[in-house]
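Lab notes, practical 5.
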Amino acid sequence: MTRDKALALVREHVKNENLVRHMLAVEAAMAAYAIKFGENEVRWRVAGLLHDFDWEIHPTLEEHPQKGAEILRSRGVDEDMVQTILSHADHTGVPRDTLIKKALFACDEITGLVTTTALVRPSKKLSDVEVKSIKKKWKDKAFARGVSREDVENGAKELGVDLWDHVQIVLDAMKGISDDLGL
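Output from the prediction step:
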């Protein structure tokens, strides 16, 4: 699947612009990791874009991303990509046994913490966010309480990168598309 087709699928199923922005952020982070690891950047971008495309229509753990996987298969998305999407959610039981699966899990939650950190800045701009700002917010469990710090830590560990190096990579990737993210 091409990036353009993936984005069209997202736009077909997602009306909430903040959810689209989340998927764009994960896409950017995935692209950064694809480049870092010498992997197929387009494929990694597509995984980042598609991982939550069904959340609006299937907003429960009983349905997401399993029902989304059915839609992807009906659209001709290859089974490796479907399994990658399924693996980002622990409850599916799909093992994260490839680098792309590990990266997708690692990039998902952290984008929310980065975004929330930017939104509390006076400028509301990613350009004003530094890793030290995120470290400070990390310690405040009430801040961005919907972001599982355990998942962020486990994601970095599974991917084999230092937590704060991971945060820097994701932050830089998101800064590169800050206009698309409205930040």
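Observations recorded by the TA: Residues 17-37 form the longest helix (21 residues). The domain at 3-181 is CATH 1.10.3210 (Hypothetical protein af1432).
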